[in-house]
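Quarterly update from the structural biology core.
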Amino acid sequence: MKKAAVRMRLVIAFAVLLGGALGIGGYTFIYAKGYSYLTDDPAACANCHIMQDQYGGWIKSSHRAVAACNDCHTPRPLVRKYAVKTSNGFWHSFAFTTGQFHEPVRIKERNRRVLEESCRRCHADIVTALEGPHRATETVLCVKCHAAVGHET
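Predicted structure, tokenized:
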């Protein structure tokens, strides 16, 4: 009988924790407009006050005519795209909620690699001409010289 009581308490504790997590997550998702991140609307990136400068810079940039936030900051394959969006959304929310975000915003290495991949995909002809066949040992990083291209200041 004791095992059944312990098991029941564990089930109830798990249900309470799961319900609490789903409730808080659902509320946060609606309150923080998390649903907007499922779209490709660049305005979603400006939901957080900390991203206003980046959004405003994108509005002024030449890339606005040809690329939105997701074109540069998420991979093309659908599963990878939403995996990156989910991971970024979680960690951005965590950082903002706990006050552990850096101001001004800095790109993390994982996201820089996604951005570099996007630059190289869209500008493949230029990259090939710049790197040439003899520079295979040294990778030139687009964002090293063109850090402000998508977000004019």
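The chain has two domains: 1-31, 40-145.
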